[in-house]
Structures are given as C-alpha cells and as structure tokens.
Amino acid sequence: MFLILKYLRRSVGAFSRFSSNISATKMKVLNVAEKNDAAKTLAGFMSSNIKRREGFSKFNKIYEFEYMLFGQKCDMIMTSVSGHLLGLEFVGSYRHWRSCNPLSLFDAPVVKQCIPGYEDIKRTLEREIRKCSVLIIWTDCDREGESIGFEVIEVCKAVKPSIKIYRAKFSEITSQSVKRALQNLAQPDKRTNDAVVVRQELDLRIGAAFTRFQTLRLRQVFPQNLSDSLVSYGSCQFPTLGFVVERYKAIESFIPESFWKIKVIHEKNDLCVDFSWKRVRLFDQLACQCFYDLCIENPVATVVSVNSKPKSRWRPLPLDTVELEKVGSRKLKINAKEIMRIAEKLYTQGFISYPRTETNIFPKEINLSNLIGMQTADPAWGEFAGRVLQDGPNPRNGTKSDKAHPPIHPIKYTSGLSGAEQKVYEFVVRRFLACCSKDAQGQETIVEINIADELFVANGLMITARNYLDVYPYDKWSAKEIHVYEVGEQFRPNIEMADGTTSPPKLLTEADLIALMEKHGIGTDATHADHIETIKSRLYVGLENEKFFVPGHLGMGLVEGYDSMGFPMSKPNLRAELEADLVKICEGRKNPEIVLKEQILKYKEVFEVALQQAAKIDEALAIYLQEQPCQVETSGIVI
Amino acid sequence: MAQPLPINREVERMCSYLASLSYTVTRDWLTGCVEYFRDENSHYSVSDLQEFVRKQWELSDLRDSSGGSLPPNLQNQMKITLRGKYAVQIESVLNISEPAYSQMQKIRKVDIGNVEVTEKKQESWEPRAGRMLKLKMCDGQRQAEAIEYRPLRMLNEHILPGTKILIIGPVDCRRGVFFLKPENVKLIGGEVDSLLIVNHMENILARALGLPENQDPFSNVSEA
Ligand SMILES: [Mg+2]
After folding, report:
1. What angle do CA A573, A520, A577 make, to 5 degrees?
2. Is the pTM of this model over 0.90?
3. Phi, psi for residue A490 in degrees, rounded to 5
C-alpha cells in the first residue's frame, strides 16, 4: 500500500531493460511465497486457470498459469517455502554439546545451511529455477519475510547466477494489491536482511553458549530435579522472564497498610450518590477520627460548585499488532501466540490485511468506503457499517507508521468462519468500523460540596450518543446517575468513617507483559508472543488462574543467580540496545559487522563472569529446588 | 567598661529576653548557659549574650532546656481552641496522606516504572491526595501531635528533627491533635542532635514498616 509511489520509478527502469533484452520465446517466471496458503491465494488472484502439480515437498505445491508481465505473456510458476529455509549453524566440530568449551562458541565459525526437514523445498526451488529467467519474491513484507526472500535468492542464484530478481510488495492479499505489486516490482532490501542475519548470528552464539553451559552444568549440580531438563537461555527470553520475576517480587515485598477515610453518601429518591473526600484517605486513624468529629459537629453539606461539561470517549485507534495481541488476550481470551496464528491464517486467506504492522494511521490512498461497504451485509454489524458509510468514514489516527503496512483491517466480507477465527475476524472488523465512526459523547457533571470546611466531590455521567460503542462491545462506558444540584443548596448527607488496606500490585497478565516488552524494546511486535511461549514451555513461568504469570522455581533461581552476579541478564537493557541497533542497520545508519562485533563482545564478557561465578546460580537455585547442590567442575563441562 | 551584672541578674535579664520571644526555659539550664558564656567571654555585649542563649536554646533538646508550654490533658479533650503561643520542637514528621511503603520506595530509589505501566489510570474527576504532614511535637514536658490542616509551605518532610516552631493561637486542638493553618506556625529553626538520625523521616518510615533502619540517612538524601 505505502510503497507504490516509492518504487514506481525503479520498476519502470526494470521494465525497459527487460523489453530490450528478452527474445520472442515465452518468458518463465518463478514466484515464491512464504507459505503454501499464500502461494495458492496469490496465484488465484493472478489467474482463474491454474494447473496444480506436486513439488518434492508434499506441503508446498506448484501452481502454474499464464500472466501478462513485462508487456508479454509469461509462464508463471508459483510455489512456496515454509518460513525460513536456511539457518545458521556452527561448523561440524562445534555442533556437539560436549565438543568444546561453550566460551569458544562466541567465535566459532558458522555456516548457513538448509534447515533440517526443508531439503525437499530447496530441491523444488533448484529444479524450477533452471527453466526460469526471472525470480519474484512474494514473502511477507516484514523483516523476517525480507530475509526469507534472501534465502530463496541464495538457493536460486547458486543454481542460476544470471537470474533476474524482483520483490513483490504487498500488505494484503487482494486482486488489486497483487496486480499493483506486479506493476511495481522492486528490489529486495539488503539492509533489512543484514539486520536479520546479525540477529540470527547473535541469537545462535549467545543462546548456544548460555544454554549449553546452564544445561550441562545444572544437570550435574541438581541431578534430582534437572537431570533431563533443557535450561535454555535467549537474550529476549531472559528479560521477559525478568519482568515476571520482578513483579512477583514486588508483590512479595509489598507491605500492606491501613488507611481511613470519610465517606459521604447522599440518598434521595432511592438514588445514592457517593462523594469522595478531597483528601482521599489518611494513614493515621486518630487524624481521620478528628476530621470525622469535625464533620459530625456540623454535618450540613453546602453545594460549592456544579460543573457540567461534554465529555467524549474516544473511538479506538487503527489496529496494530501489539494492540491486537493485547486486546485479544484481554477481551477475546485468546493468547497472543494463538491470536497471531489465527490472524496470519485470515491474512493468507485474504480476509484481513497483513497482521504484522506497527502502523496506526490509515494511508490516504486506502478506500475506506469500499471496505466499510463490504461489511454492510452482516446481520450483526452491517447496519452500523451502513451508518458509518452515510456519515462518511472518519478514522481516528495514531502517530506510528512502519512505512510498510497499513493498520490491520478487513479486506473481504465473510460470514463463513467459526470458532476462534470468527472471533478474531469479528474483532478486526468491529475495531475497524469503530475507528472509522465517531467518538461516544456524554455529559459529565461534577459536584463539589463543603461540610465543615472539608471538601467532597462526586460525578455523574449521562451518555448522549453511544456512536462507536454500538459496534465495539470491548469498551465499556457506563452512565452514572447523580441528583440535580444547585450551588448554595444545603442537605444533610450520611457521614461515615471507613477503613481499608492498601493492596499490592497485580501479577502480570499477558497483555501487561507485552506492554512491558514494548516499553523496553524487547523483541519486536512480530516476536513478543513467541518469547512468552518459550518461557512458558521451559517452565520458567506458569499461569495462575489461566491468566496471571508467576515465575517457576527454575525461573526464579536463574534470575536471582544472575542478578547476584550483578549482571543485568534479566534486565532489558542489553537486548534493547541490540533491537535499537537492528533498526539502525535497516535504516542504513549502522554497519552490520560493527553491531555484530560489539554485541558479541558484550555478551562474551558477561558469559566469562557467569562461568567464574557459576556457584551463585547454584546457591540461588538450591533454595528453590530444595536440593543440595553437587560439586562439579567450574564450568561444568566435561570434554 | 561596666562591671558585669551579678549572675542572678544576668539570668533574669536573659529569661525575660527569651520570654519576649515566647521561648520557655528552665532557670537551671539558662544559668548554666549564661555561666558558660561568661567563662568564655570576659567582655561581652548584651546582644552577644542574647544571640548566644537564643542559638543554644534552638539547638537544645527542650527536655533539658524548657519547662514546657502546652496546657495539660489535651488528649482528653474532644476539642479546645488555644489562644496562647507555644514553643515546641518537632520530634518527627510524616506524610500521612500517602502509604509509608510508597514513600519508602521513593527514598530508597526503588524503580517502580514497570508497576506504573500496568496500573489503572485515575478518572480525571477523582480527587488526588495532597500532602498532609503529621508532626510529633514536644514542649519539653508534654507530647502532642499536629497535622497540616491547611498547606504549611514553611515545612517539609526533610525538616530536621528537633526543629523549633512557635505555635500561635487561636488554634483548634482535637483529641490532642493541633489543626495547623499557616498563620498558626512560626518556624524558628534549630535541631536536636540526638534525634537527627533516629527520627529522620526514612527511619520513621522504616520503623512503621518493620524494615531495617538507615544509620546514615543524610547521605542518601543528598544524593537525590
Ligand atoms: Mg511472517
């Protein structure tokens, strides 16, 4: 969507180069999408006459059709990968866990190789590219997608170095955007790929060094508890775990305190209005008792002011990924990982736009009326969509743009979904319609009264126009009745002294955890959900009441152990610096090799100290595992 | 140079000087103070001596120096309006409108940013608590408490334990608690050395919460 104009010039150049070079024989073009579903849907938008045949991988079919491209009829071959095709690995001698001191993994040579299980996909690409002269990359238009595209290019170029390469840019799978992508073919973005490659190499080295060290050592130190455990480490995992531990400890160390306050209730015609004390509450019973005496001696309330003013409740912003994950887990009760899986499926099926986006501003070019119009058919929200059309769409806009994808929105109407898919689709639609409609309007009345020179305040709310709330049940805005008061009016309310106790902060929900990851720059909107899943699956954290994150014994012990070394392993700073550097690589403001070197050095230093002070981890864990630590070699590695 | 006054006369003179300031003082303490000054200074002017005893009084613990100024039995009276002037020392201060725990987190620089991120936002109409200091006071003989009934700009949480103030009537006192307005308080100054650490606000909070006390609370404050 965003990229059309930007890439137009380059693609015109590409076009003219082609027409002069290519002979009269029919051009063959290999198209590669990120997943089989996407390949199938994309092909469907390019032709209605598709021949399907098998590739070597039975999950990745080949779709063949004709298409007018570069001013001529081309034979299009569309196939797919299944996410990343190549991965980084240490060279052979460093692969085995006991083959080397983990410290050497910070410098050991690495190779890029086909991810085990995907050899068939690679073979298909190698076979198909031979007959083609052009390769078009159709992977998702985000950081990982760009890098997957480069892996496809690497495989194809190795077979056919002369191949012409193009990148199709799209953020929704519709016939228009497919057409537009083909009219505006661009070049793949090397910088984005550089950033991913740096991240991959760091994750491999840091992850392998710490994971091997922790796992091998702790299995020996705590044979009763951990003899079969994988004690993994990741530079995103640990700060994520750190947030959970930090909150748990904040709750543990919390000290509750008693407070007292004065409650004023005005009951009339069956309606009770609660007035709040301007001093809120006091942490001293005697002082509060004195104020209570003071009020009781002269218990007549005088209305000091009545302010009535319009109040609106803002319609939601356009939907971005983090919001989808947060609201999804809070309101739909679907965890972030699952919600993203569903959203991606809805995207590949062409129901919604690309769900990985940081943008919460609708681009001018987007035809909102069209998109809203499609929804008028729905029995539940169709009528509302019709109203939005009548008034004209007026989206509330945020301030963030990733300059690649629009906010998440529906692109096709469907009533054929069920279960969680239906819930997520419905949410995306309702959010979109809400965002394009109008703020809810109300009238708020604030009344201030004086009793013996102490001030109290109450509010009332009348909702005058629900507007977006009619289509967006995920937001609540309740009316609150209040008596009609006039300045100077006097009445005798009920006056009481009440007490209470302060309560600790709440355990983190998934939405809270995502909010903290976002605040500290841990992971990207595309990976938050995965990191959370990882710490769950390692049993570093568990869920209380299926909702609140609590650290497990292993998680607590690890964080405390590293913390006692004085290292910010469980703090977000180290990883946040890396994420910031990755953005700089994408923007061409930082050299990828320098970033790689600097980061390896930082983590290596931390690792060396961790080796020296490994006993601190044992000490912390011993308490939680209730197991006497066994004495082992300093590094725990028996080579 | 005139002959120095006999010691009795000099103490008399200083006593009425301090009384003119509404500072109460015991004869014994004042005698000791004047004697000490005269031992150190063979020649002095009246204003030198006045300055000295005034400063000494400010730095003294009123338990040693003062016979007391407050009326008896305040605690047992629901409400009384006092019309005199009362010189007292502030033994300790505490803000009673905020939990001791959150005050302590600020002092000990606990980063609560991540807790704030997940807290529910207050509605705009909901009142926010302003500061209310509670003072523990002593006139040398009796204890009393006072609260900041109306904002007292001349005071704050970091005021030194033992600081002297003059409470000026008419002022309401309920159940032994003075309801102070700005016109009821004149800040004099001073401190009491022995109270500085033990009654530092951080240690008052620590005792209220059952947390370890800080033997060097002043270096902590100056960092902030
Ligand atoms: Mg993707």
Report:
1. 40
2. no
3. -120, 145
